[in-house]
Design brief:
4 copies of one chain form a homotetramer. Helix content of chain A is 32%, strand content 19%. By secondary structure, chain A is of the alpha/beta class. Chain A has 2 domains: 2-63, Alpha-Beta Plaits (2-Layer Sandwich); 74-345, Aldolase class I (TIM Barrel, Alpha-Beta Barrel), CATH 3.20.20. In chain A, the strands form 3 sheets. In chain A, strands 7, 8, 9, 10, 11, 12, 13, 14 and 15 form a 9-stranded parallel β-sheet that branches. In chain A, strand 2 and strand 3 (37-42) form a beta hairpin. In chain A, helix 3 (112-125) crosses helix 4, helix 5 (195-202) packs across helix 6 and helix 9 runs parallel beside helix 10. The longest helix of chain A is centred in the C-terminal third of the chain and has 17 residues, at 320-336. Chains in contact: A-B, A-C, A-D, B-C, B-D, C-D. The interface between A and B is large, with 55 and 56 residues.
Chain lengths: 349, 349, 349, 349
């Protein structure tokens, strides 16, 4: 961390400020420039906030040279993290380090028939994981809030029938006791900075699918991962799902630049959710292909047997047939740079 | 709600779609336009999601004519809501309906001396409420997370000494048991769509200070209030605190347009937080004055005896002296249109 | 300007880089920190681009300590600039340095009766300037594009009848020859970075009303002013008129924080356009009052005798009666801190 | 266009409003809904502005069913437009309708050696067009503004030597006379809504590369194209180059969703500029691949022999070697869905 001192500061006042910093266990190195003094801070500055430093009357600018995250930082963990999940069918699915993970299923679990039928379709098409919402974050208190525990039971039933590992969203800490047979716990965009929840998940032994908040910077997403990792759980899958901008054609603006950036800054796998980002099912194939080409380690996609009757988010779901077709195309895109879509990897990972 | 049907749709398919809607208890009125059919939906459409309708292949556009919120809607509650809170000193403070409420205090509670000293200063300057953070939402897990329960105790001590009602942030449901002597519970920007928390606060009997998420639309803020109100708690104070934009000079962009809009759409009082919005203490007076002139029902301001040593958010705090000076100016702005700052109203509300 | 050098850089490579910089007339001061070297650049760095420096493989970060604008910078011109314009009625109007300038009139000039009637109304209500669009920037080529030269003639006619100085938008350099009798030339938001146009206006002897582009940062607005000032014309009025954000209730988000920032960074007067920012006439009074309280040096407002029949931007115009009423209220807000609305200042500036 | 009338409006007032609309040559179809009247407007409504209608006191909402653009609209021109440009080497290059066009070269033309060397490299690697800036839009008046006419001469020299068609930016109408031997005229992001310039280009017989403004919606980009097309020039190449958002890691946020949307809404070819969007050369390959996978008809890329010495935008340029390598990878991505990169198509289009 580098601090530029305001012009005209006296040596004494800077000394006094330096002492204040050193009390926090930081070593301070002073360099006197031509017209301005510059302080270099050495040591663990991850707990220091730029804005607190800026409050000091001597401080002109603060520049963080080291990233504020450690465990999520590729600098200290150069190899890609690969998440492995074993299904009830005995097969292990991988996300990261060259393996693409495809998570597919309906927005909401509705009926036993619906979820089992979708699960079978997506497994056959090559998906590695089944998704389905039981607890649903809804903007309106008057909208359908998901089937809750009952929905979770249906999802688990689909897991038993197909062997697919399941992914579903946790909305509050007290629901955790119901998530024993869930394979990957999803933290939704609106909870990305629910720090109490993140801390709790740090002591959980399951992989976490962490969605980027729709107004969160890339650094904030990594800091959210750091919260979980600081608690001891380092099996995090990051997920880009669109940010809020002025453009209103799509629900959100899918920020695919986040993919190479996250992969450069962190060792964690990165997947993309084109369904929620665009909110438009006809755009899902184009953005799914682009995500793979940008380097994503997988996708989370909404698939619904009959989107027109879906209880929620119908517009962003594709049918099982279109999903199967898309998977074939995605496989060819993945192959361009030798990456592996699940279906072909399960024999020999 | 109005649905524009795609050109070329057959009468049968529209009839079938209409039947689907009527199964949900909605009356549908069909008007045949020159080239397109238009459906008018009558009844309670607050639970219907536009995006689900848009999934249907017959639907071209959906227009919501009625707002999706009811209890927060001024249409059904034309008079301004006024929040009254009685302090331990026997005086009642008001926010809304012509009364301006000023909530002041440090970002974080640090020591007994600090919080009591600030409380006394702000009370003398005319503030109606004391704020202070005990549980702090911090971007980094390595930053100071607030004194927690101990901080709450110090805040309560300051309440006893000064008589001022206190306002502090709740980060998770399980903390609620500690909030018995808190007068107004603050929901932070990052929790504005923590729906589980909002529902819980619906059955709480305390006023809620609900901050706008920094990527939340005005409608979403009102829907968050609706979540709490749907549970039976209608004592909500809305708070504009800046939104995320491309401009990086300020931490966020204070959206003062939200003030007249929220007051037109809703009967709830609206306050403004210029400290967090700008992140720069020198800007607080200008934006505080602008907020009052825009019609806000109050302010929440960070005041710290020594901002340079503040453990958090120092840059956005002003000193007690500058606060006292600002209060005098604000009183003159409030007086322009006959509104009442707390200090002069406590004799005769 | 401060450059942080990447860790592990050799002394020779840094020397070579330093030489490159010194060839551009910059003095470089090297400070060796604990783990990283830091270069301090001394001299006129306004022409150096951060992004070019960042291209160099030795460079980790670049921090600009000095602002990139000089003539617009308050640092080199501590006193407020005051723009004075003399009307045909012999009176001089002022904007800046304690004088508030109110510019009012219709979005488009439509007929002789319309523009003269509005001019008379707004003059009587205390406006100092008449605005009216002759050349209109329209999103659609099929929309009414303004009356052009004929509209300008009508505006000049209104100037003759009322004595009010006139303000109108210039869309292209070749129109300049028609602007001889225009008192203040407006550069629209979409032309804020039309650098060819800005350069041309640098050699023009009229005050320029420079609107902030709706995606321009505050620094970019000041750099646009710098373009004009570099050519020798330093009579610039800056205008905040809303920026693009995700919020869709208003057309743009009025960024009132820009007012105190621009006034801190620059000596130029700053006015606000609440009509275009919000796009909603009912919000104009609230935001006009807030702008004055935030410290703006004036306003530009749309006033139309019959907004319902306006050929463009009807929704954002207020009637002459509402304008007159608003002026009285604004005068009281201005008086709070001793600032002067035009009507009372014309006797004794 | 559909207009929802406010509740409680009288039949007479609606009749009067209807008459007003019909005077503008629009046929109005009235449908009386259960609680609200709805007007359907038939005829050419492209010139009608929603905001003008909204000014009327009877109007609750306005919904545009038909897009406001006609010539750019795929509805009236279902087949993809393909732009063909013949080089001095006798070969024709194509953009659109299955042909990918790659435009490569330095940000600024600097020297004869530089531009010819880059031109030869990119041609050999398979680029179809040479780009190079002569007139440069610079944020600061003190930055290098490009070599101007001299730069144009050097670019033309490179065209003669290599046979590659050239693409360069026009900043003002009066420069047009110098652009005779330029093959494709680029309109920069900051000029996307310079309507005077767009109109002028409507009567020009060269293809126009129209860049999306960094705060322009997709509809506004299409309306800008419509301005040029309304003048008779329908050879437009649309270019996505990033939009402004809160994310600051990249210079802009590349909005790849714009690619499938533009291609659905319009028949015009769509290319992507990953260099300017990200501002970071290491990200260019990832985003270039993603753009192709998303369906783009080509790319515009910055290539510079020595990015570290580039006079401008060095950080976003890649070297000729990395460009050649990237081209090979892109070819494999293009082949996935049978699209043609230039180098293989020139024998048999």
């Amino acid at each position: 961390m580098i601090i530029v001192i305001k012009r005209g500061a006296t040596a004494e006042s800077v000394q006094c400020f330096t002492a204040l910093l050193e009390k926090q266990g930081i070593k301070v190195h002073l360099s006197e420039g031509a017209s301005q003094m510059v302080l270099g801070l050495v040591g663990d500055t991850t707990g220091i906030q730029e804005k607190s430093l800026l409050a000091h009357h001597l401080v002109e600018k603060v520049i963080r040279v080291q990233e504020p995250y450690k465990r999520a930082n590729r600098l200290f963990h150069p190899d890609d993290t690969r998440i492995a999940v074993r299904g009830l069918d005995g097969e292990t699915r991988y996300i990261g380090a060259g393996y693409l993970g495809i998570i597919a299923g309906p927005c909401s679990v509705e009926t036993k028939e619906q979820i089992i039928s979708v699960a079978q379709s997506v497994k056959q098409a090559g998906a590695g994981f089944l998704r389905g919402g039981a607890f649903k974050p809804r903007t309106s208190p008057y909208s359908f809030q998901g089937l809750g525990g009952e929905g979770l039971d249906l999802l688990i039933e689909a897991k038993r029938v197909t062997g697919l590992p399941i992914v579903t969203e946790l909305m509050a800490i007290h629901q955790l006791e119901l998530f024993d047979t869930v394979d990957i716990i999803q933290v939704g965009a609106r909870n990305m900075q629910n720090f109490t929840l993140l801390k709790e998940l740090g002591s959980c032994r399951k992989p976490i699918l962490l969605k980027r908040g729709y107004a969160a910077t890339i650094t904030e997403l990594l800091m959210a991962a750091e919260y979980i990792m600081a608690g001891g759980n380092d099996r995090i899958i990051l997920c880009e799902r669109g940010i809020r901008t002025f453009e209103s054609y799509t629900r959100n603006t899918l920020d695919l630049s986040a993919v190479p950036i996250l992969k450069k800054q962190s060792h964690l796998p990165v997947i993309v959710d084109p369904s929620h980002a665009t909110g438009l099912s006809w755009m899902v194939p184009a953005m799914a292909k682009a995500a793979i080409a940008a380097g994503a380690d997988g996708l989370i996609l909404e698939v619904h047997p009959n989107p027109e009757e879906a209880l929620c988010d119908g517009e962003q779901s594709i049918t099982p047939d279109r999903f199967a077709e898309l998977m074939k195309t995605l496989q060819r895109y993945a192959a361009v740079e030798g990456r592996i879509l699940y279906e072909e990897s399960h024999e020999t990972p």
